[in-house]
Amino acid sequence: MSAAVPLLMISAMYENGGNATHRFLDGHPDLFVYPFESQIGTRLVNDGLSAMFPVKYRWPVFALDASPAADYHAIIDEEAKVRARTPHVSKFRHMPFAFSDDERREHYLRYVAESGRSAASNVGAFFKATFDAWKDRRRSGHERVYVGYSPIIVVDAAQILSQMPNAHVLHVVRNPWSAYADTRKRPVPLPLADYMLRWCLNQHVALLCRDLFPGRMHIVRTEDVVAGPRAALSPLCATLGIEPGPSLDVPSWNGERLEDIYPWGTIRRATSEANRATAAELSAEEQDAVRRHAGLFLAPFGYGDFLRT
């Protein structure tokens, strides 16, 4: 059944290193790594967090009376669909991508016909169908775990882990000073207080779900990933039953090394030096404000003395 698909969902607050971590996992021979953000949410998501986070990043909700074809089209998946259907306007148009969204839909419908409709089955079918339709993907023949990345989906981690028995969630956290400094570079950035409210909520849910789902909810710091990705991701690999090999040492896309992670994420250079330099872009007043807002979440992640070391 698709609900039993082995899935690793990566989550991170904006500019917290989720894209970078996703790219470090990309070349692993045992992983089916989604090519872009896997924006699996639908416009039917409507809860207390809907005004805070874009629904494309959320765990999907499907209409009870919908058809499998309608379910497929409800999945937003903006980055992949734009690259497939209108590649000339995609920010990834410079990368080869032999992929048909229509062909993926046909594979998806076949899988759902076998499993039945549910959020978990639909998501499992979506990931499996993606790799059936991606023709120029470099394959090892040993892949057995699907990997997606959707920012802030940690807020739905309890649903994912409850509904998909073979799923894991990896939450990536970055020190809030570098994260906020990078988010200010967006065309329309969130104000400091709004950004930090969301940053704190992501960390709260990650810590809560790690207690609720031990062994399946994982947390890694961006600082540790950029300092030594293979070492930082080795515990996750051990849990998934895969070897932490040399592919983890460099970020890649479809196995091709990326010197610059942008446009997959705002973090261009995944290095410790760049991370600290980014935090130093903030004024002393901004640094103090970030510290006040981050409050009790600094110590659990080892960030209490980050600006002093």
Secondary-structure blueprint:
Elements: E1 7-12, H1 18-25, E2 31-33, H2 68-74, H3 78-85, H4 101-115, H5 119-133, E3 145-149, H6 157-163, E4 167-173, H7 176-183, H8 192-212, E5 217-221, H9 222-227, H10 229-240, E6 252-253, E7 256-257, H11 272-279, H12 284-294
Helix pairs in contact: 2-4, 4-5, 7-11, 8-12
> Which structural class best describes the helix and strand composition?
alpha/beta
CATH T-level topology:
Rossmann fold
Q: In order across it, which strands form the biggest sheet?
A: 2-3-1-4-5
How much of the polypeptide forms β-strand, as a percent range? 5-15%
Name the helix and strand elements from N-terminus to C-terminus, one letter apiece.
EHEHHHHEHEHHEHHEEHH
Number of separate helices: 12
In total, the number of strands is 7
Provide the CATH architecture: 3-Layer(aba) Sandwich
Q: Into how many domains do the coordinates divide?
A: 1
Largest sheet at a glance?
5 strands, parallel
Task: Please mark out the parts with pLDDT under 50 across 5 or more consecutive residues, or reply none.
Answer: none
Which overall shape is indicated by the principal axes computed on the Cα atoms? globular
Mean of pLDDT: 95
CATH H-tier superfamily: P-loop containing nucleotide triphosphate hydrolases
How large, in whole angstroms, is the Cα Rg?
19 Å
What's the N-to-C terminus distance? 50 Å
CATH classification, class level: Alpha Beta
Range of helix content: 40-55%
